[in-house]
Amino acid sequence: MEPMKLPGHKAQALIERDHAVISPSYPRGYPFVMDHGKGTEVWDVDGNRFLDFMGGIAVVSTGHANPQVVRSIQEQAEKFIHISSDFYHEKWIELGEKLDEIAPFEEAAISFMANSGTEAVETAIKLARYHTERMNFIGFTGAFHGRTMGAVTFTASKPAYHGGFYPLMNGVVHAPFPDPYRPVLDRKPGEDYGETVVRYIEEQILEHILPPDEVAGVLVETIQGEGGYIVPPEGFYPALRELCDKYGILMIVDEVQSGIGRTGKWWAIEHYGVEPDMFTTAKGIASGMPLGACVARKSVMDWGKGTHGNTYGGNPISCAAALTTIDLIRDEYLENAVQMGQYALDALEEIMHRHPSIGNVRGKGLMIGVEFVKNQETKEPANELTERVVELAFERGLLMLSCAKSVIRVAPPLSISKSEVDEGLQIFAESITLAEKELGML
Ligand SMILES: Cc1ncc(COP(=O)(O)O)c(C=O)c1O
Asked: From the CA of 146, how far away is ligand 1's center (Å)?
């Protein structure tokens, strides 16, 4: 396929204007300047068409400009846009009821509505301290939970998130995330690697660093996102649940990226048959309208009036978009994520066998990571090649995003069709071949 010359004139001019007035801290990937989108397709301001395999970082769950979501936003905007969280409205209540229906625990669920993932995480941290009257937490290396001061303390995927921002929050100790492809701990014979990590938490962290009766919670991304789309082994969550129960520690799962149907179940934790005490959601929940939530068991969300709040929580337009998003996912896209996820995973495994630069393919539903290596034996990360693949795919009309050192994530809208999966993977495979040739791997 002939590559496009990017950015085009209009995109270039807008990027120059952006650089003059927008914070340089944003981690811009490549020069895509959006004009409009429909489903899995997007167009830039110069009229170039792309397939979107990253869905605004796993946000556009029902596809770009889903007509039903657009209609519910329009209808709500005509009624009212804001009233503040000091009052009540029906869409907010309805969303709480829906989250209670789909929450991954038997006990009734109570929701605190936030405006972003990081605010949902911040809420979980505060609630855990308040409820347990304990101060400390366990987090994981490679984690990404957001960038506000509490959440960023748990974030441990790149030093750039912490550099220049100390002192962070007190009382967070990180354990290694159970990465089956890159284990860092020694496993006992016959032990599931997830159990190894939980044993490390008990034998090293709780015996040497944190008194267990002063630990409020364990905060973990059910499937690690920014850290590399890492799926923990089967034994991890059952063992972690047992550890939390033993010491009265809350198990808090961050489902901001992995939740709301992304993995083919409402919440990724359901793949493990374990009930958390609290979870966070954002990203895909409202198809791109800003909304997050911290959802806890009723017995855990026991704080009183005025202890925590916000101005925009339960914003009616975001709630309206979320209600339609949840209906669409329940009726159609959850099943589509299972089908298309398996189809894409099988196809990617096949592509892996043809490419020496791919070390590992893993995922659940439409949350799939492809890890690139310089050598399949040594597993040395292939950073340069990874970034080159993303660039070559972009020039050929496919939007992808990398994560960790050398992983490309496949996280398209949950509404993606089979022909779109085929088209995107063809461009992806071609881009890998070209990058391998350029970097002397073929
Ligand atoms: C797992 C997870 N938690 C929290 C966040 C933070 O969300 P936000 O960027 O909406 O603050 C992200 C964002 O990428 C995420 O992936």
From this structure: 5
